[in-house]
Amino acid sequence: MRALQVTSLSSDLSGCELVDLPVPKRRPGEALVRIHATSLNFPDLLMTRGEYQFKPEPPFISGMELSGEVIAVDTDSSLAVGDRVMGGSKTGAMAGYAAVPERNLRLVPEGLDYPKAAALGAAYTTAYTALVEQGALEAGQWVLVHGASGGVSLAAIDLAKSLGAKVIAATGSPEKMERIGALYAPDAVIESVGRFREQVAEITDGKLCDLVLDTVGGDIFDESTRCVAFAGKLLVVGFVGGRIADIATNIPLIKGFSVVGVRAGEYARRFPDRGKSIADEVSRMASAGQITPAIDRALPLSEWRQAFEAMANRELVGKVILIP
């Protein structure tokens, strides 16, 4: 099979190579999946550099998230040969086949093709964990979503709108604003530069936001502390902007808001029943057509470099899918 292998860590993708490898052997408790689509996630890029919290030792096959068809599985498994599944692991998805722990796979929701199924899981379960599980989102609340062209942030916009919230989508890229607005019709799209609190206050008639979802960090986090309403929550999902922000504790004390760290995968591991419920609800909403992943482009695996560079250069509005 063809696979994208990280043979050494580098800042410029020079340690990545498309190679021919044997189809992996399935162990008990695993399903062998013929991969139809792989979704590129920001941690995939970070792992090629050794900058993610999970640091696999090279060589390893890149890719966390996939969709495909079950080829082989244990006889007593809840899955069957021929099932359409989605899921994955921390590595191994950018290949023709993968041996995946059965517990990491779910049936593809009705009505979703393989590319959308590959784009659904991580982004939407993270958004749901942040907004609903840890943020206690209610209909009518104001939600500010930063990094609005990214997979998790777009999922958060889609999810929040479907649950009746009022959404402000914020992006640092003016040329992306119209595309973001067209995808999920947020109540407002703003450019997140400088003192954007004034824009947020004007849009919300001075109420500010009950929830702020921040995937960017740095200056965006700093200014977001001024955008949270009293008793609101600032949900920290990531730091794609590079700088990990600090906060003086008098700021959340005086304003009465909470800073909440969101690690959806770890949350699901520590609370497996809640993790299953979140994944079930995401699948149900997708089957019902209430949420739909945004895909910027689908490329053959041979064009992996273009996909990674588009992500690194912040060109995307939605997910990029690789087809083996």
TrEMBL record:
Pfam families: ADH_N (PF08240), ADH_zinc_N (PF00107)
Alphabetized GO MF terms: oxidoreductase activity
Start and end residues of each Enoyl reductase (ER) domain: 11-322
Origin superkingdom: Bacteria
PANTHER family named in the record: QUINONE OXIDOREDUCTASE-LIKE PROTEIN 2, SHORT-CHAIN DEHYDROGENASE/REDUCTASE
Name by which UniProt lists this protein: Zinc-binding dehydrogenase
Organism: Pontixanthobacter aestiaquae
